[in-house]
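Note to self: keep these together.
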Amino acid sequence: MIAACALPARAIPAFEEVRQDFRPSETQILSREGEVLQRLRTDTSVRRGQWVPLADVSPALRTALVLSEDKRFYEHSGVDWRAASAAAWGNLWNQRTRGASTLTMQLAGLLDGDWRQGPGGRTVVQKLGQTVAAQVLDRRWRKDQILEAYLNLVPFRGELVGIDALSRTLFGKAAHGLDDREAAVAAALVRAPNARPALVAQRACGVLREMAAAPAPARTATAVSTPRAGVDCDAMDLFTTAALQRRAFDASEGVAPHFARYLLRQRFGPGVPVPERVATTLRAPLQRFAVQSLQQHLRELRGRNVEDGAVLVLDNATGAVLAWVGSSGQLSQAGEVDGVLALRQPGSTLKPFLYGQAIAERRLTAASLVEDSPAQITTPSGLYIPQNYDRQFKGWVSVRTALAASLNVPAVRTLVMVTPDAFHRQLGAVGLPLRESGDYFGYSLALGSPEVPLLHLTNAYRTLANGGRAGPVAGTLANGGRAGPVAGTLANGGRASPVALADAPQPPRFTQGLDARAAYIVGDILSDGNARARTFGTDSVLATRFWSAVKTGTSKDMRDNWAVGWSERYTVGVWVGNASGAAMHDVSGTSGAAPIWAAVMGFLHAREPSRAPRPPQGLVQAPVRFGPSASGPAGVGAAMPLEAARQEWFLAGTQQPLFAMDSIASSALPTGAGGKKDPRSPRPGQRSAPGGELAEPVAARITAPAAGTIVALDPDIPPARQRLHFTATGDGGVWRMDGKLLGRGAHVAWLPWPGRHRVELTDARGRVLDEIRLEVRGAGATGPAPAAAPR
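Structure:
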C-alpha cells in the first residue's frame, strides 16, 4: 500500500510551479508606467488576494501558526512521528488528543485533492498517501517554501483563501502588519475556519498564551515577536467577534473602475481566463488629475443641481485611451453608471461635422453669409422654429462666426441644404453611428437631438484632429508597449460600433471620414477666439496658451453639457450633467464642462507644446471683404460692413474677394434730374406699367405661415419668449387675429396662444386681401388669450 501511494506522491509540483499557477480572485489594471490603477474582482467562487512572500508575512503570524499547528515543524522531515505515536496511543484508549497532521502534510492535501480530508475524515489509504507525499515534499522543498505556500493556499473562513485575503478582509491591513492578537485569530481559524466567534476567540486566546509562554528560541525560530506578559481572554473575545464581522477588503478599489470593467468585458468574454495583471494605455498621473479636476469643479457647482460628469482623453495618432473617468464617484448617487458610455444628447457639438460636410460639398465656404434670423421651417408634423441659446439673433453672419459662436438658426439652415439623411451618413463616417435614420430626427439633427456616448463623440473629434481620418480607440498595451486594441462591440441597437476593435494588436487603421481640407477649415474656425467672441467673449475659458480647437454644447433644458476639443497630440472630451436626466440650474457650456476641459488640456501641455496643423493640399488662403450691414447708418457708403476684412481659407476654386447681400436699398432707386428720386420709380409692392406709368399696387398676400399650420409650443422655452412671425408680400397691410387688430406692415410677431385661430390681412379700407387658419397646441397656458396690440 505504501508503494502504491508513493507513485502519485512523486507527482508533487515544484514550488515555482505552484507559485506560477496561483491565481488571485482579482485582476490588477496597470497604467503604462506599471502603477496599479484599479483592483477588480473577477473570480466570484473564492476570495484570494495576491501571493505574499514569506518575508512579507508578520513574524507574529509565523510564530503563532507554528506553535498552533506544528511545534516541531523545523525538526521533523515532513511527518511528526512523535505526535503520530501519541495520537495513535490516545485513539487506542479513547482519549482525546491533538491531531498529528503537520503543516507539510496539510500542504500536501492542499496541493493534491486525493489527500484532502472529506466529510467523514481521511481513509487509511489517504492517510498513508499524505504521509508519503509529506516526506517527498519535505525533501524537495525548503522549510520556508513550505510555510510560504501553506499561508497562501490555506482556507481561513468562508470564501477567504490565503493570508492576504484574510488580513485585508478581517483586519484591513497587509499581512506584514499583523500583531500578536491578529496573528492568534488567524492561527485559530486554520483549525476551525467556520467555527462560532466564541470558539475562535477561545482558541485564539490559547494560541496567545502559548506565544507568551514560549521560550525565546521558539519565538525566534522564525522571527522575533514581542511576547505578552498576560492575556485578557474577555477582551480577546470582543476583538475576535468584531474582526469576524468586518469586511474591509472591497471588491473594487482604485481610480479607474469604469475603464477596468469596460476593458475586461470587451477583451475577455465569458469562459476566457482573466490574467492577474493587465497593462493598459492609461497614464496614472493624468488619470488621477482628471478625477480630481472633475470632482473639484462639481463641488464648485454645488447648488446648481449637477452631480455627475465624465472625462475621456485620447491620443490622436494611436487612439490610445490616456484617461477614462466614468463618474464623479462619491459625489454621485449613480456612481456605477459609466458616463463615458452613457447615451446623452450632444447638443451643438455636432455642428462642426455639419459645416464640414457643407464645405466639403462646396455648398458653403468659411466666409459664406448665412442668416441668423427667425425661421419657420415647414415639416410633415408642423412648423420647426429653432432658437438660439441666448434667444437673440445676429442677422447675416459668416459661417466662421456661425460655427465658432454656436448659432443655432444658421446650423438649421445649413442642414436644410445638406439634408438630414446626408448628414446622418456623414456622422456615421466620422464614428458617430445613430440608431435611427436622419428622417427620424429631421432638422433637429443639426442641434444635437440624437443620443451618443462620450466615447463616440470624442473619437469623432479625433477624426477632425487627424485631418478627417477616422480610426478606432485602443486600451491595452501589447507587443513591447505599443497600443493594443480593445476587443468586442458596444451595444448600439445591436450593431457593431466603430469604436470596437479587432482582438489582435495591430497598427492604427484609418478611413477617410471627412474631406481633409474641410476638416482643417473646421479646426481653424474652432481655434479662432475672435470668431467665438460674439457668444463667449474675448477672454473665454476656452482660450488656451497653446494651439487648440474646442466646441461646447448644451442639450435641451440643460440636461447635458459638453466640451470637446483637440490639440496637436490629444483629444479631450468632457460631459457634465445628471445620470438621472434631471436638468441643471444655470449651467452653460463655459461654466459646466469647459473649465474641466481647459484644466485637463493645461495639464497635458504643461511641458509639451502644441502647434497648429499644416494646411493640406487643395486649400488656398485669400483676403475677403464683407458688404454693408442693413442695420448700419443711412447711405451705402456710411454703412458698417457685416464683418471685418480678413484672410480666409477656401477649397481651391471656391474663393471670392467680396461677400455681400445682393439687395436694393431705397437710396439706390432710379433718380431724376438733379439727383432727386424719380416719382415714377416703383415702390415696394408696385410694378411699372408699359410706358413707364405706375400700375395699381399688387394685392398683398400672406407668405408665412402656410394655411393649416399646426404650431406646437415648446415647454422648455418660457411662453413669453416664444413668437410666431407673420410675413406678407409688398407693404403688407393690416393684420387681424380672430377679428382683433394684431399689427400693420409686411411683418408682425405674435405671442402664440393655444387654440384654433383665423388670421386676416386687410387693406386700409378693411377689405380682406388674404386669410389663413392655423392651430396652436401646447400645455401650460390658462385663461383668456392676451389682447392683440398693433406693432
